[in-house]
Design brief:
Structural class: mainly alpha
Distance between the termini: 24 Å
Number of helices: 8
Order of helices and strands: HHHHHHHH
Largest sheet: none
Oligomer: single chain
Length: about 200
Amino acid sequence: MCGIVEGMFRHSMALFTAFDEAEATRITETNRKVERMSLDLRVYLAEIGDGTERDRFGTRAFELAGIGSNLEAAADVIAQVMVRQAKRISYDKLSFSDEGWKEHVDFHDQVLRNLQQAVAVLMNDDPALAEALVAEKDRVRELSKELEERHIQRLQQGNEATMLTSSIHIDLLRALNSVNTSFAMIAYPVLHQTGRLRETRLDAG
């Protein structure tokens, strides 16, 4: 499921430069697939929880269900926010300012790297990688705020492209940050298992 959502995210930004209805539909259909997978996972884990192995699997089942829910949330943001705003850009024949678009591309690339790191954390249960992922979560949140401030500055300068795409720009920044946060939550179980959770800023939100 993690790799599927990463793939959705990887292809989403191309829709802002050349909207492809077929690709948008694929992302939407993949989102529904992720929703079904997340539900199936919860049902399966609930059945395990009712069996004789409840004590052994209870905590891990809870963690896995949480990861599934966070991945589902990320997929929802990609399919319902990013695709919708890309469609709006295309249909309304709008364009971001050059500076604004570069910021989005760079921000997307940064979040994509974090998503790939989250996949590695999930596969390897590496506490050092988990701590680094948490640090990136905090850094991305601050970067999102900084990029919003730069956007406001361009508005104040009267940049026409910035004014026409302002709501889309802000929605996209927040969507990218939200996806990053959802994947960063994969670090919780690893840090909890190793006793490092309180040593991080993760529970600061």
